[in-house]
Specification:
By secondary structure, the protein is an all-alpha fold. Helices cover about 70% and strands about 0% of the residues. InterPro entries: O-mannosyl-transferase_TMTC (IPR052346), TPR-like_helical_dom_sf (IPR011990), TPR_rpt (IPR019734).
């Protein structure tokens, strides 16, 4: 907390112009005198010491604190000497007594400092309480009291000093102080007690027009920390109703949105305005990404960079989303924009990471890798290779090697590509398992199903309980029409890892595709949805089985949801077929064409359009 008030917050224990400063100057003079006199005595006999000339009379400024008489001076001196001799307890008592007598803020602070050095939280609290009694309107005293209670993890005692602190802060700064409290108070362990203390401290400010939005938003954050999401959401709604332009309540609603559709609706309503803050859009995009709603996330980043095109990292994020969505032309534009802005930025300004520039180079390498992938999606293999070649060999990790191997395989060099994945050095030092999985994916991409099967089977024999290897082998077995083997392997994954949503989805989808045991397929897919409710590919599978079972309305709803989240060519095939069956053929053709634009060679989409005689 860095609020400024009448008693400016400098370091926690500042030295100010009062009795303590006078004492420090006096002790310094004594130290100089003590060091000088012995040497002087050796060279000048006392009888020959000339008298000092009379000084011109000077009108001295009045001392900062006239209470610093001789007895008090020596009391302070004794306290300091005790502290320097390691007797912090005695020094504390001496200086706290002096602080009480003089009511001097820096003496109270010095006493607190000694208590902290002596690892006595109780004495530190005793000193700050004495300070607050002696100077009841001291902002620094209230602030220090709050800081100590947080450091000592005593939320139950927080309400009164926190309330006083907020009261003493200048009115113009009060909302800012209130808004900054969650990060500071979040270190306290007892979140429920913290919420109660903040609620009590905020009681005068929750309905005051100047502070109610900040107070309700902050109290909502504390409620969320205390596992009171309903209370937090109610406070967010009230704060938003108080001030529908304020971003704070929306940021709180965004924190609640992953588990509350009502909260997300509030966020979406706010972001519908053209002038919504770019940072809020980017935060929402991160939430959408975690829910695998990449299409929606990309739209939010588009709007963010449109409003603030000078932002640098969001262009890289947008490029990555667009490559994933198979929007290569727009991805290339975004990634080249990122590189141009990064080249113009001062060193260290391109990312939010360390100052060494390492992360900035990693971001550049990632942009080059994504540009390679985007050009490959467009069939520009030469440009794709050129972008990869910019990454120095010592910075290549397995993902870059995989991109290079993919391009080599496309040029008929599959054997050399496999050797590259097996043997080439990589910056991230991948183990043999990671290399095997990358090689198997290369074989699958090049339709060498049997080669991938043999390679994965070899790996599984060496690690019979590796669920990733088992799952990948099951997927290849399906392509080889070894359906019994596939089912056995997937059920093995379900046994070893009961929360693996992808295993339930894969078996449910396979049964659906083969139009067999559909009721069982739906149960499997509902289980997968329960484990990963936001996965668009699982939603697609569930929509597809509903269609096969004749539930076209439910199928249409689910498939639209999947398409909006992740507009993949295979989802286009399913959604288009449902629309076709409902005689909504114009929209079906629109979806088919969009799927083809993203992935013209997708087998499922091509087969569906051919079977339905849906001309492109």
């Amino acid at each position: 907390m860095t609020t400024q008030g009448p008693e400016r917050q400098a370091p926690l224990f500042p030295v100010t112009g009062s009795a303590w400063r006078i004492f420090r100057l006096a002790t310094l003079a004594l130290a100089v005198q003590a060091a000088w006199l012995p040497a002087q005595a050796q060279t000048t006999p006392a009888a020959e010491t000339p008298a000092a000339p009379a000084a011109e009379p000077v009108e001295a400024a009045p001392p900062d604190n006239s209470s610093l008489d001789a007895p008090m001076f020596y009391q302070l001196l004794v306290g300091e000497m005790e502290a320097q001799n390691g007797r912090q307890g005695v020094a504390f008592e001496v200086l706290l007594d002096a602080a009480r007598r003089l009511r001097d803020p820096t003496l109270y602070q010095r006493a607190i400092e000694l208590a902290v050095q002596g690892r006595s939280g109780d004495k530190a609290l005793q000193a700050v309480q004495a300070w607050r009694q002696g100077v009841p309107e001291s902002l620094d005293a209230a602030r220090t009291h709050v800081q100590l209670l947080v450091a000592l993890d005593k939320p139950a005692e927080l309400a009164e000093p926190l309330g006083t602190l907020i009261r003493l802060v200048p009115a113009a700064e009060r909302s800012g102080v209130i808004s900054g409290l969650p990060r500071f108070l979040g270190n306290l362990n007892n979140k429920a007690a913290t919420y109660t203390a903040v609620e009590q401290a905020f009681s005068p400010w929750l309905n005051a027009p100047a502070t109610r939005t900040a107070a309700r938003t902050t109290l909502g954050r504390m409620a969320l920390m205390a596992d009171k999401p309903d209370v937090a959401m109610a406070l967010a709604r009230r704060a938003h109703a108080d001030d529908d332009d304020a971003a704070g309540p929306i940021a709180l609603a965004l924190e609640l949105a992953p588990g509350d559709t009502g909260a997300e609706a509030v966020v979406q309503g706010y972001l519908a305005r053209a002038n919504a803050p770019a940072q809020l859009r980017l935060a929402y995009a991160r939430m959408l990404e975690k829910q695998q709603r990449i299409g929606d996330a990309a739209n939010q980043v588009r709007l963010a960079v449109a409003s603030q095109p000078e932002l640098i990292p969001p262009w890289l994020t947008l490029g990555a989303y667009l490559v994933d969505l198979r929007e290569p032309a727009e991805a290339i534009t975004a990634l080249e924009r990122f590189l141009a802005l990064q080249a113009q930025a001062p060193e260290g300004d391109t990312t939010d990471d360390d100052e060494s520039g390492i992360r900035s180079q990693r971001a550049t390498d990632l942009a080059w890798q994504l540009l390679s992938q985007a050009h490959e999606q467009l069939g520009h293999t030469r440009q794709a290779a050129e972008w990869l070649e910019r990454i120095d060999s010592e910075r290549m990790d397995l993902s870059v090697l995989a991109r290079r191997a993919s391009l080599m395989a496309r040029n008929g060099q599959l054997t050399a590509a496999r050797a590259l994945l097996r043997d080439a050095p990589a910056q991230d030092k991948p183990d043999a398992r990671a290399r095997l999985l990358a090689e198997a994916q290369l074989l699958r991409d090049n339709r060498d199903w049997q080669g991938a099967h043999d390679l994965l089977l070899q790996g599984m024999r060496e690690a019979p309980e590796d669920t990733v290897l088992i799952y990948e082998l099951a997927m290849v077995a399906e392509r080889l029409a070894k359906f019994d083997d596939m089912e056995a392997l997937l059920r093995r994954v379900m046994t070893l890892k009961p929360d693996d949503a992808h295993a339930f989805n894969a078996l449910g989808y396979s049964l659906t595709e083969r139009n067999t045991r559909l009721d069982e397929a739906r149960l499997l897919l509902r289980k997968a949805t329960a484990l990963a409710p936001n996965d668009p590919f699982i939603v697609d599978s569930l929509g597809w089985v509903e269609f096969r079972l004749g539930n076209k309305t439910e199928a249409l709803k689910l498939l639209r949801q999947s398409w909006l989240s992740r507009p993949h060519a295979e989802v286009a095939a399913h959604l288009g077929e449902v629309l076709w069956s409902l005689d909504q053929r114009e929209e079906a053709m629109k979806i088919f064409r969009e799927g083809q634009r993203r992935e013209a060679t997708n087998e499922v989409l091509l087969e569906t359009m051919k079977r339905l005689k849906a001309a492109p």
